[in-house]
From TrEMBL:
Belongs to the glycosyl hydrolase 13 family. It comes from Candidatus Faecalibacterium intestinavium. Keywords: Carbohydrate metabolism, Cellulose degradation, Glycosidase, Hydrolase, Polysaccharide degradation. The gene is pulA. The keyword DNA-binding does not apply. One of its GO terms (molecular function) is pullulanase activity. The lineage of its organism: Bacteria, Bacillati, Bacillota, Clostridia, Eubacteriales. This is Type I pullulanase. Gene3D superfamilies: Glycosidases, Golgi alpha-mannosidase II, Immunoglobulins. SMART domains: Aamy. It is an enzyme of class 3 (hydrolase). It holds the Pfam family CBM_48.
Length: 647
């Protein structure tokens, strides 16, 4: 195995076999259909054609020809749109059946690939589809396709619940009663502008023949370049899921949202993947003793530092951007991928779409050590500042400082009685530029500011767990509501891009369970009734988002943004203040007070007039501001003041 690692890591292998063409997979041409597979270690490859995506024998078997660089080729003199296929690849005398790793369509459960005429999958108007204009701030809202529309309270048509199609419904209401907006109508009102879709590539943990029998988040890739089938109205129709996902994206764009795709290139569902069956050993990291590297704790790690693996990942990202009009990419366990690849992706997207136009960010960590080639720079926290400033990372510094570590359920942060968090909160406000003990960033463009995502406890559950001895997840406990508001006020006034778990703003609960990746949909679904029961909390988030977009000091993504923070203070334990230069807007300066303590704090910033933009009661103060020179900040609340530019 040491030998195999050495061969696949070698410059010689790369020189001999690196294929730079972008025509791998099945392509329709004027004359027919061409198939190309990169399989340099194969002795023979056969192409097998089927009428069905999941049953029956092949109607034709064709030997493939070996071309330069280890590419295998076959041509059929017919346009085969809708024909299913797989390969038989023989390496060292062992024949393996595999779907096409480069497939862009597949049959039920993705075990066979499908030849597809992509233009035939375009919904009407797709060529004109365009992302809405960028706003002053990027506010990312994370949803799972099935969770989003599954609950009856959402008022979606029965057939569309849990499907891509639900995103084509712009005006749903609570239980369909025609009054209280849910779904996209609710989100338009809320003010978020990016919808992040949890995995929509084809994954393996849900049986597409019986999608209602189980639930999964889908961090288990099978076909990287094909949409997941269980969200389609007919997973057996290889073209339909493509069209339906495009329809969803088109609708999201029309409703004013950009779309981010959650991508999981760090590992595959099985070690026995199409990549492994096609070129055994090449796409995965191994330790010198031959054992599989498992930094993902999902059984395997992709070897992103090898040139054809890097090209595979980069081309996959470009494909989703080009073919599906994705506006950004969130990389699962980015810390397992390498910096060179992330920068290659950044550069390629910038060249095609303009600098920074497509968002690129990820989790700057891994779940364990990984066996990458010596000298590989991994895209984890340690190397963040040396990467392109438009490669971003989830900031666990702010997440844990505000509400306590995700590692320990009882651990507390600034808003829920945790002690000694003041300096971390101040560092969070400056998006950890120039950095602190927990996190370093070169610019706020590298920082995803967030309190909760699909992993770990929801914000609400963390607050209940740490503040309510009775652990009443469904009660409206004033102490919990107050802490949630303060947490939101802090997050929404920290520099960096803003991100929230769908439903965080309505006190989403999973009844104290964390990492609910395969728990029932009944626990994971978005409960739109709860969204309206906690409308006061939703409104508090809504006001903060609208205010945020008016505050250039906080939206500034440049490396010098931290210089806008003119003064910071810690008047007493669990209370911090910030004076911020907000030049170029309606308010030339901001004064922020986060008072998590149990005592009121009276302030008189400079003896001049200030306007109350938001306080613990309302985040809409900025609409008709009250003016004064001194203010009392109630216990457990935030105060956001602005000094009018004319004053
Ligand atoms: Ca699937």
């Amino acid at each position: 195995m040491e030998n195999q690692n050495a061969i696949f890591n070698s410059a010689g292998f790369r020189r001999k076999f690196h294929y730079a063409g972008n025509d791998l997979g099945a392509r329709l041409t004027e004359e027919g259909t061409e198939f190309r597979l990169w399989a340099p270690t194969a002795e023979t490859v056969q192409l097998r054609l089927y009428a069905s995506g999941h049953e029956g024998e092949p109607w034709q078997i064709l030997p493939m020809t070996r071309l330069d660089k280890g590419v295998w080729f076959a041509r059929v003199d017919q346009p085969l749109h809708g024909t299913y296929y797989d390969y038989q690849v023989t390496v060292e005398g062992v024949a393996q059946t595999t779907a096409d790793p480069y497939a862009r369509a597949c049959g039920l459960n993705g075990t066979r690939s499908m030849v597809v005429d992509l233009r035939a999958t375009d919904p009407a108007g797709w060529q004109e589809d365009k992302a809405p204009a960028r706003q002053a701030e990027d506010i990312i809202y994370e949803v799972h396709v099935r969770e989003f529309s599954w609950d009856k309270s959402g008022g979606f048509p029965a057939a569309y619940r849990g499907k891509y199609k639900a995103f084509t419904c712009p005006d749903t209401t609570l239980y369909g009663q025609g009054e209280k907006p849910t779904g996209l109508a609710y989100l338009r009102r809320l003010g978020v502008n990016y919808i992040q879709l949890m995995p929509v590539f084809d994954y393996g943990s849900v049986d597409e023949a019986a999608p209602d029998d189980s639930f999964n988040w889908g961090y288990d890739p099978v076909n990287y370049n094909v949409p997941e089938g269980s969200y389609s109205l007919d997973p057996a129709d290889g073209a339909l899921r493509i069209r339906e996902l495009k329809e969803a994206i088109q609708s999201l764009h029309r409703q004013g949202f950009r779309v981010i795709m959650d991508v999981v290139y760090n590992h595959t569902y099985h070690r026995d993947s199409w990549l492994e069956r096609t070129v055994p050993g090449y796409y995965y990291r191994h330790w010198p003793d031959g054992s599989w590297s498992d930094g993902s704790q999902c059984g395997n790690d992709l070897a992103s530092e090898r040139s054809m693996c890097a090209a595979y990942i980069r081309d996959s990202v470009l494909y989703w951007a080009e073919e599906y009009h994705m506006d950004g990419f969130r990389f699962d366990l980015m810390g397992l991928l390498d910096c060179d690849l992330m920068e290659q992706i950044r550069k390629a997207l910038d060249q095609r779409y303009g600098r920074g136009e497509k968002l690129v960010f990820g989790e700057p960590w891994s779940a364990g050590p990984t066996a990458c080639k010596r000298g590989t720079r991994l895209a984890g926290k340690k190397n963040l500042t040396s990467m392109d400033p438009e490669v971003g990372a989830f900031c666990d510094g702010v997440r844990d400082a505000v509400k306590g570590s995700v590692q320990h359920r009882e651990s507390k942060g600034f808003v829920n009685s945790g002690a000694g968090k003041e300096n971390q909160i101040l560092a969070s406000a400056a998006a950890w530029c120039p950095g602190g003990r927990r996190f370093h960033a070169a610019a706020p463009s590298q920082v995803i500011t967030y309190l909760s995502c699909h992993d770990d406890l929801t914000l609400w559950d963390k607050l209940v767990m740490t503040l309510d001895p009775l652990k009443q997840y469904d009660a409206r406990t004033p102490r919990v509501l107050r802490a949630n508001r303060l947490a939101a006020a802090i997050a929404m006034t920290c520099q960096g891009r803003l991100f929230l778990l769908g439903g965080e703003e309505f006190g989403r609960t999973k009844q104290g369970r964390s990492d609910t990746h395969n728990d029932p949909i009944q626990l994971n679904r978005l409960d739109w009734q709860r969204a309206w029961e906690n409308q006061d909390l939703v409104d508090y988030y809504r006001g903060l988002m609208a205010l945020r977009k008016q505050l250039p000091a906080l939206c500034d993504k440049s490396p010098r943004a931290a210089e806008r923070i003119l003064q910071t203070g810690i008047p007493f334990a669990r209370c911090v203040t910030l004076l911020v230069d907000n030049a170029g807007s309606r308010w030339r300066q901001l004064y922020l007070v986060y008072n998590a303590s149990g005592r009121a704090h009276t302030i008189d910033p400079d003896g001049e007039d200030w306007e109350v933009l938001a306080d613990g009661e309302s985040s809409f103060g900025w609409q008709n501001p009250r003016k004064d020179k001194s203010f009392t900040v109630q216990p457990g609340t935030a105060l956001i003041l602005g000094k009018a530019s004319g004053d």
